[in-house]
Design goal:
Blueprint lengths: L1 E3 L13 E3 L1 H12 L8 H20 L6 H20 L5 H13 L5 H4 L8 H16 L6 H19 L4 H15 L15
Parallel strand pairs: 1-2
Length: 197
């Protein structure tokens, strides 16, 4: 299962199921609203898409309150509304741009309804990369390809250790000590995987 934003590189990832971030889509709508040259049917298109996404999120949040038949009926209606929106003949440049994205990802927008535990947004991934982004910003970038590679490996190892409930600094110090004496790195320690990102 891959939960991601709409970054094109994610399209190449082979996975069984996908969920694309609805919050990124809503943000793109808000960003486009600030353009000065909103032409043609943009207002109608954006209103329908915003309402569709809002209704989907509200339905997901109310799932426990609703009878299963009611929930499934509304879920089916949302899928139908998405198909109708995507099939529409929209003329605005901005509508067409977002429509292209919707057509490419229409099967990935509502996975969170069907698979328990899947969020409708990728906030956990955003939070997971935040420390690395802050370090890069505070150090004014990596300044070289080698520095970039080194940081990406270290951040990956740190994150993996943290998610396994290990102390990243202590584990790396122990690993480096072992490497200096034996010439080989020990395997990553196994441990409880936490949901904390």
């Amino acid at each position: 299962m891959l939960v991601s934003d709409f970054w094109g590189a994610c399209n190449a990832v082979a996975c069984a199921l996908r969920q694309t971030c609805l919050v990124h889509l809503i943000r793109k709508l808000e960003q486009t609203e600030k353009y000065k040259s909103l032409d043609g049917d943009w207002d109608a298109f954006s209103k329908k898409l915003r309402r569709l996404l809002g209704d989907a999120i509200r339905l997901w949040r109310r799932r426990e309150e609703l009878k299963e038949a009611t929930y499934q009926s509304r879920r089916t209606r949302l899928t139908q509304r998405l198909k109708e929106l995507v099939a529409g003949d929209w003329s605005s440049v901005h509508s067409k741009r977002l429509l292209k994205r919707l057509r490419r990802h229409q099967d990935d927008l509502f996975t969170f309804f069907d698979v328990e535990g899947v969020p409708f947004e990728n906030n956990s991934a955003e939070r997971a990369i935040r420390p690395a982004v802050i370090i890069r910003k505070n150090s004014y970038g990596n300044r070289s390809e080698v520095g970039s590679d080194c940081q990406s490996v270290l951040m990956s190892v740190f994150r993996t250790l943290k998610q396994r409930g290990q102390d990243p600094i202590g584990t790396l110090v122990t690993a480096l000590r072992e490497y200096l004496t034996t010439g080989t790195f020990p395997p990553l320690p196994t441990g409880k995987t936490t949901s904390d990102c």
